[in-house]
Amino acid sequence: MMYELLAHVYDALVKDDEATACWVELVKAHIRGTELLELACGSGEITIALAQEGYHVDASDLSAAMIEEAKKKRGSERVSWSVMDMCDLHTDKSYDGILCLCDSFNYLLKDEQVRALFQGAYQHLCENGVFLVDMHSMDRLEEFAEEYNEAGHVKELEYQWTITSEDDRIYQNFAFYDSEGRVTLEQHEQRVYEPAWILAELKNAGFQVEVYTDFTQAGICEGEKQFYICRKAGGIQ
Q1: Where is the Methyltransferase domain (predicted)?
Q2: How high is the mean pLDDT of the chain?
Q3: Which CATH number fits domain 140-191: 3.60.10.10, 1.25.40.10, 2.20.25.110, 3.40.50.2300?
Q4: Beta-bridge partner residues of 136
Q5: Any idea what the Cα angle at residue 100 is, between residues 163 and 119, rounded to 5°?
């Protein structure tokens, strides 16, 4: 199961206050209105930052362990938390913005999962609402063709972390070692999608789309992430 032990050490490994501030500014720049749904919210860093800016945020993640970690944080009481699959949005609410950030999208490995997410997001947006989703660029496959390795200590655990790519997949492998010699392993698999296919599927779902690379560069160009700003224009569908 993904994000079990990793949920408890996630922030210690990857927390990035500067990146969180960039995501908040991206939301403020492109979404009008204050009602937000964040999908795959993880440990809730961006979620709580948005709530502190005055947004009303419903936040969900497939990992119950991640949601429990998020609930422990200062400011978490401002957020409505739930465990939910982003491909099956069981809510009767409509939102000004729906978010899927931090390459969480890339955990969707099948075409039909992507279509279910896009269609669900469209259905649960208000008119002129925005679905904001980021994902790995194709450049990441080349970056991790040579294995990335990291090792260290986190919360009284030793860890090893490797990232590799093969075909259209990125694999992250974690090994955690406690003081009694027990080992916990987690593997995460992500799929990287061709931007042309993503754009076609978003437009098929009814969205008008703008794309940025690495927050600020207009269009699809060299970089780590693409950001798709997908607007539900009035009168479509």
Answers
A1: 37-129
A2: 94
A3: 2.20.25.110
A4: 225
A5: 120
